[in-house]
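Deadline looming. Please check this record:
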Amino acid sequence: MSASKRPSPSLSLLLAASAALVGNRSARADEAAPPLQSVGYRFHVYDEDAFPDRPVIGSPQRYHVDSQQLALSARAGERETLTLNAVHEVMSGSSPWYLVPGPDRRPIQVLSGATIRDHRNAIDVALTHDAGGNDTTTLDVSYSQERDYHAAAIGAQRSVPLSSALTLGFGGSLSHDRLRPTDAILYGRIERAEKNTWSTFGSLSLVLSKYAVVESGLQLTLQSGYLSDPYKLVTVADQQIADTRPDRRGEAAWLVRYRLAATARASLHADARLAANSWGQHSVTLELGWYQELADGWRLIPGVRYYAQDRARFYAPFFDHADGRYFSSDYRLGAFGALSASLDLRKRFGHWELSAGAERYHAATRYALGGADLADPATVSYSRLFAGLDYHFD
């Protein structure tokens, strides 16, 4: 198919949205098409804001991550498509360690004394069978490795048309993670640990008209094993003890997606997600995106996102008494909210497609659900830039 005869982005996205809720990769049975469909490269730069005030210990600089990604899509049969994604990341910076009470009991952050440097390599391979009529089955396997962390996962998902306007999606996944913290004996950390994650989902996608699609789905997730962070401490009374969390965590999440082809050259994406877990946390995510096709093969995609959560039952910046079994001052378990804005620009040159974009993410405890008694200075704000190049063989 020539570039000039490709369907408009609005129509393509609208048709894709009528598939199952969790990202299907559909394949077309076309014997004349080349075996290799597309290959792409992305480079991401992720940079967290430094602390405005110098912490008690350690550098105020936070995580910086350079990431490279290679993506490939190829036909594996008349109705099968094989996709591969490989990622290499280089991470550096200091990590929040624990908090201590300062003047007026305002939390003061203590960071890791040494600058962290690590690498992560990950690969994901998926095989999709397209039976036609939006009936697809996908099998997925992935593996991720860091110096102290290994994770393997397998999953499957199915999309089944119930009628010309209604599609059922369902699936599940299982992952197994192994942890061997560095300097375990020196810092009294656990020497090795494991955890398992089971997840399942179901969804319904309804075509409202030739211009609009709505999807709704439910996802259930259960984690078990070692769920604490071996690199974090928490201040209890006058001592720093190891971060200690329950060994089980269940979560239910409800997601609604709406896609509208507003014009022949533009579409609106609106997503909402509500979640609750057994650690006492609730969260909400609202996201809007606008896909605008411009002249001469240009495409512009601005987006905004709001996220907010309340705190886990066993979270506090610090604890005055050793009451209870679980203690954590990890900011990720605290109450906070975040606003982000992104911009993605793409340009098609025949078979080539160039992309570039940026995201700004700002988090603060004042955006949290129900507010927060004490602001956690470790709450992350970051900037992200990316650029990429794809080659489409169709």
Remarks:
- The mean pLDDT is 88.
- Helices lie at 9-17, 184-187.
- The CA atoms of residues 88 and 121 lie 5 Å apart.
